[in-house]
Amino acid sequence: MKKYSINILFLVVTFCTLSAQQHIDPEYVKVTNERAAKIVSKLELSDTKKEQAVAGIIGQQYRNISKIQEARDAKIDALKKATSKTKQKDKIEKLKKKAEKSISRLHKSYLKQLSKELTNDKIDAVKDGMTYGVLPKTYAAFLDMIPSLNQEQKDYIYSNLKEAREKAIDGGSSKEKHAWFGKYKGRINNYLSAQGYDLEKEREGWYKRIEERKNAKGNK
């Protein structure tokens, strides 16, 4: 009887929380549309209808990701209130995996929609826009920090940053997006160390060169 009551409580709390989320906050719609418009403005499409279509796809993607993650978090919160801590871990993990699968399907659908409107280069630009341009900035930083990198090493760095970006576009927050890049930058650093680079020394030399450039520019 006690288990039955707990399950009912879990369902009621979840239903109430999710019901409240069915009405999308108009302010959030505005924010996501503005984000999308900002990304599209840099694509230089020169086609108003296409710009509107792409902006609509991007804006909706932001909202779709948020919807899945908010539903997941609501169910986790409800679970924590309705079950003991010893029983929470596996159930929470299942909820997270279910959400990940939903986002994975959404990811594929999103790219498919974009591919109907944009070339691969433009799609990459959208991905960079959704991830604050971390990939090109970080890649350029690695090349500047270690000028002696060979092509194989450059390719390794770039492919890992691309993989990080692919994960990061599904992040629901800035923190989550940057966390993906942080994870892959750690992988890159380990690779470079194994390749014989002293990253602390390389970084010190890089900072010195940056300072010298600033001073040279200031003296002009």
Tell me about the biggest sheet? none
What class, by secondary structure content?
A: mainly alpha
Q: How many strands in all? A: 0
Strand content: under 5%
**What would you report as the Rg, rounded to the nearest angstrom?**
22 Å
- Percentage of helical residues? over 70%
Separation of the first and last Cα atoms: 82 Å
**Which overall shape is indicated by the principal axes computed on the Cα atoms?**
globular
Q: Output the number of helix runs.
A: 9
Low-confidence parts: 1-22
SSE pattern, N- to C-terminal = HHHHHHHHH
- Write down the overall mean pLDDT: 88
Please give a structural write-up:
By secondary structure, the protein is an all-alpha fold. 84% of the residues lie in helices and 0% in strands. It has helices at residues 2-21, 26-41, 48-82, 85-115, 120-130, 134-145, 151-168, 174-194, 199-218. The radius of gyration is 22 Å and the shape is globular. The chain starts with a helix and ends with a helix.
